[in-house]
Amino acid sequence: MLACKLAEKAWRLENTVYIHAKDRRDAERLDELLWTFRDGSFVPHGLAGRNDGTESSPIVIGCDTHGVEARDLLINLCDEIPPFAEGFPRVAELVTSDENCRKASRKRYAVYRDQGHELNTHNL
């Protein structure tokens, strides 16, 4: 749900977004959520690889690690940093209170830091 809200906010600020899901099932679930997460909300989006004309939408959801075009914002929902992350000017990593999630996010944080990225945290 937080990924949906973040994508919607970015879109309203006229940003393009790529949401990187763990697998196809999660990508399809997020595709469905973007239609239903809030009454009256419209978030234009598409599912990568569907070849239905929605790939040029402001928000694209996918799970592949190749062929991803850079956009204004990457929302990473995976435990690993995707190999294409360097092509994005901003990356959002969502961290839950789950200890495994927190442990994986600490590793990603260290990698980003060691690569010299500017890091900001937001507690929601």
Q: What is the gist of this entry?
A:
The protein has 124 residues and is an alpha/beta fold. The chain is built from 3 helices and 5 strands.
Low-confidence regions: none
For the terminal residues, how far apart are their CA atoms?
Answer: 13 Å
CATH topology: Rossmann fold
Biggest sheet record: 5 strands, parallel
Gyration radius, to the nearest Å?
A: 14 Å
Helix run count: 3
Total count of strands: 5
| CATH superfamily placement | DNA polymerase III subunit chi
| Neighbour order of strands in the largest sheet | 2-3-1-4-5
Strand content: 15-25%
**CATH architecture group name:** 3-Layer(aba) Sandwich
Secondary structural class: alpha/beta
* String of helices and strands: HEHEEEEH
Average pLDDT over all residues:
89
Shape: globular
Percent of residues in helices: 25-40%
Q: What is the count of structural domains?
A: 1
Which class in CATH terms? Answer: Alpha Beta
